[in-house]
Amino acid sequence: MDFESICTGLRRGAEKLARQTAAQKNFALEAVAASIDSSRNSILSANAGDVARAETNGMSPALVERLSLDEKKIDGILAGIRILINQEDPVGEEIAGWTTPSGMQIRQVRVPLGVVAIIYESRPNVTVDAFCLAYKSGNAILLRGSSSAVESNKALVKCIKDGLASAGVPEAVELSESTDHEDVQQILTAVGKIDVVIPRGGKKLIQTVVQNARVPVIETGSGVCHLYIDDAADLPMAAAIAENAKIQRPGACNAVECILVNKKIADTFLPVLEKKFAGRVQMRADETCYPLLKASAESDTAAAAVKDGGRYGQDCVVQAVAGDYGYEFLDYICTVHAVASVEEAVAYINTHNTKHSECIVTNDRSHARLFQQQVDAACVYVNSSTRFTDGGEFGFGAELGISTQKLHARGPMGIKALTTTKYLIDGEGQIR
Q1: Going by DSSP bridges, is the β-strand pair 419-426/105-112 parallel, antiparallel, or unpaired?
Q2: Nearest to 111 by CA among 419, 432, 427, 429
Q3: Do strands 411-412 and 402-403 pair parallel, antiparallel, or not at all (unpaired)?
Q4: Which residues pair with 197 in a beta bridge?
Q5: pLDDT digit string (tens) for 169-187?
Q6: pLDDT in tens, 273-290
Q7: Exposure check for the chain: N or C terminus, fewer CB within 10 A?
Q8: What is the pTM for the complete model shown?
Q9: Degrees (nearest 5) of the Cα angle 187, 188, 193?
Q10: DSSP string covering 20-80, please?
């Protein structure tokens, strides 16, 4: 790609976009939504080619699901755009204001970041989400998806550009169609051309960006998420939350990768968990949990459940090894580990997690509050699945990713995460 030309065009687009009113930006997003809606067949056809190629190359079923689009997912993309349209424009929002002793009026207001680049893996919906969030917050954006989704991304960006052209508004979006890594290095070292880079994907991608970038980075994190079952937990509730958090979309970053169980209720809860998973998840268990889970898996009831559609059969319970802990499986696999107390659960999580999303299931309010206060993560849940860590579920309409850092933005990143602030000072001839 002609990187210099692209960056120049994006900067020009950002300057024009910064002058657009909320009504103009909303009109543009409506046009983009209409373009996507009317181009479903071409989008799905392009995606089918990506999916077929991924399956041929041996991509895991969980990651293929993340890559795939269907009518329902396109409906979800369009619903996210409409939520963004209805949100208040953050640009120009006055965060604070005061008068100095010398009589100067100072206001702190939100402004766009400028030119944003996002480097992401697989998920074609991110192409639309990232563009819409950037556009609504007044930013130009360079999209760099993965080679596995290149045809899907091309089709979606064509729809975006067609929509913007029909609305007669600034374009301010480009897609890097390259499938090699040279363009990634160009993005990461584009000082003065790109204002911020956002990586969204697995641990390897994020580390590559963080370690090589010379431009500012908003770090999103891989999701080594934990579910702690307290000794004061409602066990049927805990099993239902575990099933949802692990199985609904195991390839998502907010899926649970480790289940912690209090030793006091391990012999009661683990058979319930094993039957709930019914062979669909491989549980890699520690020395306390393994015999309890294995005995349940070998029972007649569990064996029947496995035959009814379990994926792992009698291999659904295995002994964990050291490398399993703190690992993001992104598959129908999780570790199961016993702890003696909520304090031990907190210490374990803070040692092994990626600061993404963590949950405790308990009816003890003091345990819940201690867990929420002491666990170091962007999102900390009580009695609810970690699968809710999502911009759409939080009411943002879409997200750029889940920030696991502590500067500027943390958690699901909506439109305000793509703004910074500046101070506007009005005086009457004051001098110092």
Answers
A1: antiparallel
A2: 419
A3: antiparallel
A4: 117, 217
A5: 888 999 998 877 888 999 9
A6: 999 999 999 999 999 999
A7: C
A8: 0.82
A9: 55
A10: --HHHHHHHHHHHHHHHHHTHHHHHHHHHHHHHHHHHTT--HHHHHHH---HHHHHHHHHH
- Which value, in Å, is the radius of gyration of the alpha carbons in the chain? 24
Q: Between the CA atoms of 42, 46, 52 and 54, what dihedral angle is there, to the nearest 10 degrees?
A: -150
CB 320 within 8 A of CB 335: yes
* Torsion angle in degrees (nearest 10) through CA of 121, 375, 265, 338: 70
Residue with tokens 């900067």: 11
SS3 label, residue 6: helix
pLDDT per position as a tens digit, 377-425: 999 999 999 999 998 899 887 888 888 888 888 999 889 999 999 999 9
Positive or negative, the CA dihedral 404, 407, 412, 418 is negative
Give the Cα separation of 325 and 341 in Å (integer).
Answer: 19
Tokens 């657009």 locate to 20
- Tens-place pLDDT, residues 250-271: 988 999 999 999 999 999 999 9
pLDDT tens-place string over residues 304-320 = 554 445 667 668 999 99
The sign of the dihedral angle between the CA atoms of 101, 102, 108, 114 is negative
Please, is 405 exposed, middle or buried when counting C-beta atoms within 10 Å of its C-beta (0-12, 13-18, 19+)?
A: middle
Token readout for 240 is 């239902």
Task: Please give the structure tokens belonging to residue 89.
Answer: 């424009």
